[in-house]
Amino acid sequence: MSAVGIDARADLPAAPGGPNDISRRLESLPASAYLWRLVILLSLGGCFEIYDLFLTGYIAPGLTRSGLLTTTTQAFFGFSGIGAFVAATFAGLFVGTFFLGFLADRYGRRAIFTWALLAYSAASVVMACQTTSEGVLLWRFIAGIGIGVEVITIDAYITELVPSRMRGRAFAVNQGVMFAAVPIVAALAWWLVPLQPYGVDGWRWVVLIGAAGSMVIWILRLYVPESPLWLTRQGQSERAIEVLRRIEAAAGADLSLRLVVEGRPSAAIRKAGLSDLFRPPYASLVVLFMVFNFCQAFGFYGFANWVPTLLVEKGITVTKSLQYSFIVAFAYPIAPLLAASFADRFERRWIIAGASVAIIAFGIAFAQLASPALLIACGVLLTAANVTLSYAYHAYQTEVFPTAIRARAAGLVYSMSRISATFSGFLVAYMLREAGVIGVFGLITAAMLVVIVAMAAFGPDVRGKPLDA
């Protein structure tokens, strides 16, 4: 499991001015205001992805009230229920991560960051105009494809722009900024879903508001550079050094390292492909992170996408459930910012394992309690554990793979969470019908136990190790 920080072609000598030297220069960057500004700009772009992803749970009561979908269905794979809406979202995410992860490796982090967001925003607008369950599900699936491409692009982008000593904090801040969209969508759903402003269902307004806000991405992209590591991997060493010099100047870096690489020709760089992921040293990492992602999605989305519905099943009215969900949603941006205090002090795998233990504990408590105050408290703590796990693994699964195949590797392993989340919609609906809220959290507990064992026993160490060097 020593794949971290080595090239996709370990037998090749390091190229002067190539990925290894670029990586060393990036690693020497100070944790400056400029780097934090880049992290925040990328994260603001990701806000729309999170908004679009999390509206799944918050507009569910509105979809059922409008008669388009039902809470549960008689058939396990019923395509007229909320489970099908959740499944359509994650089926699209699977296609985006598994089949289209290569786009960011081929065309660049910056271009795909922009176009993927615009694509899924357009699909969301079309979905908001649908009047049949089939139309809603189809366009939700298409929107999910764009979201899937966007999420792995942002992960690769941030991983390549910040040095290892601040990468954990960078991802914690990234998640904090992105998850600020959750209380926003929760508040809008609480306000609009029970209403029909201008004769239009409230859930449609929630979708359209998020899509309209995404136009800000055209402004954000002007201030974000392309990844120098990606450029040099494409054989564009001169452009990579030019971009890196601008980053170093803006970040106030020690410019002495320029003498190491500039003025010397770069050696030819062989392309790495998908097949590299199925050979040592990466094959074992691929298997590990596939198992991890398949299981972690049950814990995260089994709760996040079903909060209002789970509360309704516990006897709370739709309006109150949306109000309580809005309060719980504040844990999404706050928890990762608090986690930034220890994000780089411990190995990622131990943070993931600890968060998984907390998910089990607070999930079981949520299933057993009835008091609104205690339910909200458990919901907040459970959400905090989920987002702590989230920031840690988003960093982890990009650090362990090389730049040449980072986005497609992250997309490949992350796609397993899309598959499990697709089926989790049906499984949660089934468990909710057959065993109630307790059954749902029994399913989540089993999945998180697998995560704990996998990370504790097989997770590699990554703390303090540079990329591609």
Explain how this protein is built:
The structure is a single chain. It is built from 21 helices and no strands. With 469 residues, it is mainly α. The protein has one domain: MFS general substrate transporter like domains (Growth Hormone, Chain: A). Helix 6 runs antiparallel to helix 7 and helix 16 packs across helix 17. The radius of gyration is 22 Å and the shape is globular. The two termini are 16 Å apart.
Task: Detail the topology: elements first, then pairings.
Elements: H1 19-27, H2 33-58, H3 60-65, H4 82-100, H5 102-107, H6 109-128, H7 133-161, H8 167-178, H9 181-192, H10 202-213, H11 217-220, H12 228-233, H13 237-251, H14 258-261, H15 283-304, H16 307-313, H17 318-329, H18 331-339, H19 348-368, H20 372-399, H21 406-458
Helix pairs in contact: 2-6, 2-7, 2-8, 2-9, 2-10, 4-7, 4-21, 6-7, 6-10, 7-21, 8-18, 8-20, 9-10, 9-17, 15-20, 15-21, 16-17, 17-20, 18-20, 19-20, 19-21
Number of helices: 21
Estimate what percentage of residues fall within beta strands: under 5%
Mean pLDDT: 85
CATH class: Mainly Alpha
Low-confidence region ranges: 1-16, 263-269
Q: Can you count the beta strands?
A: 0
Distance between the termini: 16 Å
Q: Superfamily at the CATH H level?
A: MFS general substrate transporter like domains
- How many separate domains? 1
Helix content: over 70%
CATH architecture: Up-down Bundle
What is the makeup of the main sheet? none
In the CATH hierarchy, the third-tier topology is known as: Growth Hormone, Chain: A
Radius of gyration equals: 22 Å
The 3D shape can be described as globular
Order of helices and strands: HHHHHHHHHHHHHHHHHHHHH
Helix/strand-derived category reads mainly alpha
